Amino acid sequence: MLVLGRLTAGAVARSRCFLARLRSKRSVRTSVYAGFAVLLLTFASSSLVIALLAAIRTLLAITTGDAAMTTIAYFAGCAASLLFFGRLSNRFGRRLMAALAALLVLAVLMLLSQLESLAALYIARLLQGFASGLTASAVIAWIVESIPAVYAKSSAVSAAIVGGGPSIGFAVGALLTGIWVESLKMPLQWLILSLGTAAVLTLPAIFLSAETAHCRPIPLKDLLICAGRHRSAGDRSYGKNGSAHLGTDGGRFVRNSNGKKLSGQLSRNDACSRG
Hints:
Shape: globular
CATH architecture: Up-down Bundle
CATH superfamily: MFS general substrate transporter like domains
């Protein structure tokens, strides 16, 4: 038993060293790519329902009011995510929130592939809003924090991703849906399966990426957005590049140690209002 215990401990240690080396190789660059993939998938899946809303109304025989309620469900999920879970990545890390967003996208796609009731549509839109809120806060923060180590002109790239990332995702989803259904005449389930496969493939990429947040215990009462407004300057967390991360509250801006603004701010309502 003693020999078996030593062999097991040695195997665990070797696997940890292997994973550490694997993560160190291009892990920061992988963070940018994996984060942007989650961003595109989240907002593309959200626009999927918007592009197919007419067909869904016919399929489920729902009224205009029922269709409008799906937008309210999306906004409620997005607002709840930003209000109550926007700063969870400061406690548990950006990668965990990115993985959660990818899993939510996968759950939404599974619901849409077997859509048979209005209740299922409401749940799907609620989960889409929740995933959009996580992406607009934690995932975009993860991308912005990883960019300075990859790109020289980090401020321009950060501003482009923060300002245009959700719009690109919505546009890609709507365009892809239109081409798939109208031009290629292919079953919609195949498109959903393709997006679901992409969501699954992002999970190992997230696992192999670098963590940029300095995970630290945060009192539960401070996890709300409004609770972090009056923190002192000494409570800021500084990254390796000297940037101060002033919370992940759905809006995002980064300043370096000299106070220079590095990237623009994404409004908390920006991701929700586009759904």
